[in-house]
Amino acid sequence: MEYRRFGTTDLDVSRVCIGCMGMSGTRGPADDAESVSTLQRAFDLGVNFLDTSASYGNGHNHQLIAKAIEGRRDKVVIHSKSGSPRTPDGSGTRGGGSPEYLTKTCEESLERLGIETLDIFCMSRVDPNVPIEESVGGMARLVEQGKTRYLGLSEAAAGSIRRASAVHPIVSLQMEYSLWSRDAEEGNIEACRELGMGFMAYSPLGRGFLAGALAGLPDDDGRRQHPRLQPGNLEHNLKLLAQIEEMAQEKKITSAQLALAWVLAQGEDMFPIPGIRTIKHLEENLRSVEIDLTRAELNWLDTIMPIGAAAGPRTREMDRVNI
Asked: Are 235 and 241 in contact (CB under 8 A)?
């Protein structure tokens, strides 16, 4: 496993971060014992970086991780998001930027994880009703109290990143980024590099699409409603996938490995977060660290998958991003 210094922190983390969301029922039924075994296998293979959230399984994800890190806490870097409050019907309000909410969520996260301090506490979304300076000011007090070492943001616009950093150092931005979701190249990555931040690319496999994993999704898998998988968009996007799969076959790797290798090739400050639930997929994805893409291959991928290549928006309207 390769390691890199994470942003302006003193943390050396694995190039691949394990996304734990799918271990708490958001991708259909998950097996807790298998999830714990997968996480512990990841640790044995040198992965030391986990991404989770207070909202995953309403706390279940944190309790699961607590079992997996037992006896290994000092060897694992935990990046935990605050989650966003939802209306009872799940449709939503984003929000969650008040200092009171952030403090409560951080404290509950520590209790469920069974630890005293988070490595990185991340606000899941910028709250349009709370100045980001106020939100980050509240989070800074959590650092002062020893409840988290560092602060991060998720899906924040470049302007918000700069405003937040003027209040307290922000060490990372988490944002969707992959071959079919390159919006971050329109200012977000530039702001991160300007401030020396790490960039955590969530959904680096296009929510499974770039891995060819979306056929026959169970009824309770939220990805079934994704705009890019709806009639009219899906047909166009499958043509893009076919070209990715053709290149992967030529290189004798999987399309998932190709997609992850592409993210890694975008810079040493890039840390993809593939969602992983099984040891098989874990081991397959980690081999992406060993794949070198030539300049010609990267140029070809840029040609077929430029910004805006995919048909349909990358999120549902209810999931507002980039404020």
From this structure: no
pLDDT score at 92:
53
pLDDT in tens, 229-252: 878 888 888 898 899 999 999 999
Cβ pair 120, 149 in contact under 8 A = yes
Looking at the DSSP assignment, which residues form a beta bridge with residue 122? Answer: 81, 152
pLDDT for 292 beyond 70: yes
pLDDT score, position 318: 43
Q: Out of 56, 101, 150, 202, which one is annotated catalytic? A: 56
**b/e burial code for range 302-313 (CB count within 10 A of at least 16 → b):** eeebeeebbbbe
Q: Are 53 and 296 in contact (CB under 8 A)?
A: no
Burial of 235 (0-12, 13-18, 19+ CB in 10 A): exposed
56 catalytic per annotation: yes
Structure tokens at 104: 């409560």
CB count in 10 Å sphere of residue 318: 12
Residue 22 sits at the vertex; the CA angle it makes with 273 and 118, to the nearest 5 degrees, is 60
Domain topology for 3-304: TIM Barrel (3.20.20)
Please measure the distance between the N-terminal and C-terminal CA atoms of the chain and give it in whole angstroms: 35
Return d(Cα 316, Cα 92) in angstroms, integer.
Answer: 12
Give the pTM: 0.89
Instruction: List, in sequence order, every residue forming a beta bridge with 78; answer none if it has no partner.
Output: 50
CA distance 180 to 302: 10
Residue 210: pLDDT over 90: no
**Average pLDDT rounded to a whole number, residues 51-73:** 92
Helices (H) and strands (E) in the chain, counts: 10, 10
Mean pLDDT over the full length of the chain: 89
d(CA 26, CA 6): 28
**Side chain identity at residue 131, one-letter code:** P
